[in-house]
Give the backbone structure.
Amino acid sequence: MDESEPIYHGKRKFLGLKDLVISFYTQKCPYQCPFCDLKNKSSATPVSLESQKSQVDWVLNKYSPEIGSFQQLSAGNEGSILDRARFFQPAMNYLIDATTQMTGLKVLSLETRPEFISYDYLSQIKEKIGSTIIDVTVGFETQDDKIRNDILGKNIQRSKFEEKVQILGALGAKLTSYVMLKPAPGMSEEQGITEAIKTIEYLKDLTATQAIDLVVYLNPTYVAENAPISRKMHALQYQPPSIQSALQVVFASHAMNVPIYVGLWSENLAGKAGDFNCRADYNPLIKKALKEFNQTQDMHMLLENTSKCRK
């Protein structure tokens, strides 16, 4: 891969904000979560500082005609953008300096594992970014400790995660958390819905203790064909969650006043029958309605657009 270009770049409307999304090409994540195949998109060896800076320049040049209109910048590297051994601190400084061109910027979103959330590093970023809100995006996935750590292999201890959320509170940052829908092999559809709702309830209560904003990024689980866990899921005849189940979780999250965005793309990693699109009960009208909801958070429109699908 050309090290002067990121793995992914694109624009979207995220909860009403025009968002520039970048996944930088760096050395791959050292954590071997068995459900994840994203690390295989990254480099096996360190990517130089100059290459990382070149990726920043490449994206800014690509989007230069509209760079001032972006309201959010979402930066990741298919791992942890705050891992300074992979995305170097001078590269982060270079990225933040470059955001001066983004005159409409309101939110800087940084995706990371909780281990790399530190008060000192985020304080330095906060000082450089000025009045822009810092959002930290973490893949907590599920409040069930056994599923999160024993099955998904995330190795995120609840107590440590809660300590990191305290840091976000001290800095006035916000939290976005990935929540997996039906994350475990052998789960029924109803169990998957219940677990997702329990996780949102836990996250809501936790962030309330620190008086910080929460956004949930709901990911209907897909079977990444080359991920280590895929063999087990296939052996247990795992069926990915339905788009209808995602809709139910959205309704529940909205009732809790928690903004929610639904991931509707399996990043070209799902194999045959590996995601909700392959189910017999797949309804493209619901997917279309959720895509519009992701942009606007307009519940009245979502209810109207799915009324016939729910009868």
